[in-house]
Amino acid sequence: LALYFHSGEREEKCIIEDVPSDTLVIGNYKVQRWDIHKQDFLESAPGLGMFVTVTTPSAEVLLSKLYGPQGTFSFTSYLSGEHVICLQSNSTRFVSFAGSKLRIHLDIRVGEHFLDESVVQAKDKVNEVNFRLEHLIEQIQHISKEQNYEREREEKFRKTSEETNSNILWWAVVQTLILISIGIWQIKSLRDFFISKKLV
After folding, report:
1. Where are the transmembrane segments (predicted)?
2. Which domain holds residue 32?
3. pLDDT, tens digit, for every residue of 127-185?
């Protein structure tokens, strides 16, 4: 997931990432500040930092740390579900200032372990093959874990759909019985009315 968004200084922006349990999540970000004179986003001034907060599906804070204007953060999920990742600048400037607009570039990688090419090149060919195989095995394990998580979500959704369909069916049956009862009552009332007026 790679994106960028605009934010005011001291304004908190959050994204939701659906993550399987026991999965490594790595985030890279870079902050740029709007320059009113050049009418463009420029590299941030030194001293501007970002508070990064990660909250689990059970509302527990998994990560809360101050980083610089550009950095990398990571965490490992222990619960499957929607994790909330929030970023907020630590600027002391007032939001009403014209230069308060920020652009935040964010790249989120779920379940990826970066392959360090410099380490690979430093090893001989046999070790290089082993290293690449280990990396591939990690990726396969992550894909398998992701598929299992999606399967669990699909099963939960299917159960919810089946329960909803069952409730709709019973409600339709109840409505039909009510309509039939009202129809019979109306026919009986009309019949009694006609008999009392000696029309039949």
Report:
1. 168-187
2. 2-112
3. 777 777 887 888 888 888 888 888 888 998 999 999 999 899 999 999 999 999 999 99
User: What pLDDT score was predicted for residue 181?
Assistant: 94
CATH number for the domain spanning 34: value is 2.60.120.680
Residue 102: phi and psi, rounded to 5, are: -120, 150
Give a yes or no: residue 85 inside a domain. yes
Q: What is the side-by-side order of every strand in the sheet holding 61-67? A: 13-19, 81-89, 50-55, 61-67
Asked if residue 35 belongs to a domain, the reply is yes
Give me the number of domains the chain comprises.
Answer: 1
Q: Is the residue at 172 inside a domain?
A: no
pLDDT value of position 94: 43
| Mean pLDDT, all residues of the chain | 82
C-alpha dist (Å) from residue 98 to 7, 30, 44, 74: 13, 21, 15, 33
Tokens representing residue 145 in the block:
């874990």
